[in-house]
Sequence to fold (174 residues):
Amino acid sequence: MKKEECFELGIITKIHSFKGEVILFLDTDVPQNYYKLESLFIEINKQLIPFFIDQLKVQKVNNLRLKFDGVNSEEAALLITGKNVFLPLTQLPELKDDQFYYHEIVDYLITNDQNEEVGKVIEVIDDSSNRLINVLVNNKEALLPFNNNHILKVDKPNKTIQLSIPEGLLELYN
Fold:
């Protein structure tokens, strides 16, 4: 499985027992969608390695206690602790028409509140305190605020997003 065909679900934060159990932090708004996993991929040495789940218990809302097939000791569990966990894009839940996943909007055209072209989306930077969108503007990368206060309209069929861009911000990138 290639990383481009997957999304990051979370990270294995710590071991739970001497029997090889680990805690998986689910980095998602709806962790309940992943309470019945049977397998997942763990990134080890830049490769996605499949792991099959023997036991899964909900520890807290965003934490799962997992026991993997073949991981039977504290030492084996330590080898996957701190590693990122992935699932195939096909396992993402369906969204409503006005919702989107960040990976879906890469290459969308950004327009301003006058519907003038600004640039194309390179990536979404989701820092919990300040979500930004990296946009290619006049062959330069520009970081723009990307939250509910700034998103005016998302047009999935035409692959455009209309943003309210703070006055003077784009001039910083010219």
